[in-house]
C-alpha cells in the first residue's frame, strides 16, 4: 500500500510540476511581439483610433493625404491602391539590414501590393465575408475613408487574419498588419 501511495504521490507531483512549466513557444513570442508593436502605435499621438463595428477591437490610422469624396458603405464595392506589409522582427526598425554573418535580412515583408500590378486599382467588397483580402480591420478603415483619402492603417491580429494566419500570403497567425491604402473610388452598379 505504501508503494502505491508513493507512486500516486510521485505521479501527482510530476503532473503538478509539468503544469507549472511556462515555456514560451514561438507562437507566444510572435503574438507578444506583434501585440507590443500594435500597443506602441496605439500610444502614438500621430495615429487615430477607430473602433470596429464588430466590437472585436480597434485599428489605428494615420492620414497621409486627405480626400473629399464619398464614404463607402459596408455593402459597397471599392477600388483601391494599396500595399500590405508586416515585419518579421518588430524590434528592428530597419526594413532591410545585414546581420552579423553578412547576410541580408529582409525585415519588411510586403505580402500584397497594387504596385506589383502596374498600379491598377484592386476592386473588392467592403464586407469582409465577400473577399479574401478584406479583414475586419480593413473593412473598418474603408467605412471611415473618403474617396481620395490615403491612410496608413495598423490592424491588430484579431482584426486581421487572426489566430490562423493566411497561408496564401505566408502570414503567420497573430500577425499585426499594416496597409498603406488610397481609396480611389466607389463602384457604382
Can you describe what's shown?
- The chain is an alpha+beta fold and 189 residues long.
- It has one domain (23-187): Chitinase A, domain 3 (Roll), CATH 3.10.50.40.
- Helix content is 22%, strand content 30%.
- The protein is built from three helices and nine strands, in the order ααβββββββαββ.
- The strands form two sheets. Strands 1, 2, 3, 6, 7, 8 and 9 form a seven-stranded antiparallel β-sheet that branches. A two-stranded antiparallel ribbon has the order 4-5.
- The chain is globular and about 55 Å long.
- The model has no long low-confidence stretch (mean pLDDT 89).
Please specify the SSE layout and strand pairing:
Layout: H1 2-19, H2 26-42, E1 48-51, E2 58-65, E3 77-87, E4 96-98, E5 104-106, E6 108-113, E7 122-125, H3 136-142, E8 150-155, E9 177-187
Antiparallel strand pairs: 1-2, 2-8, 3-6, 3-7, 3-9, 4-5, 8-9
CATH class: Alpha Beta
Overall pLDDT: 89
Cα gyration radius (Å):
22 Å
Low-pLDDT regions = none
Organism: Proteiniphilum saccharofermentans
InterPro entries: PPIase_dom_sf (IPR046357), PPIase_FKBP_dom (IPR001179)
Catalytic activity: [protein]-peptidylproline (omega=180) = [protein]-peptidylproline (omega=0)
Enzyme class: isomerase
Short description, anyone?
The protein is α+β, with helices and mostly antiparallel strands and 189 residues long.
Q: Which characteristics define this entry?
A:
alpha+beta; Chitinase A, domain 3; 30% strand; Peptidyl-prolyl cis-trans isomerase; rotamase
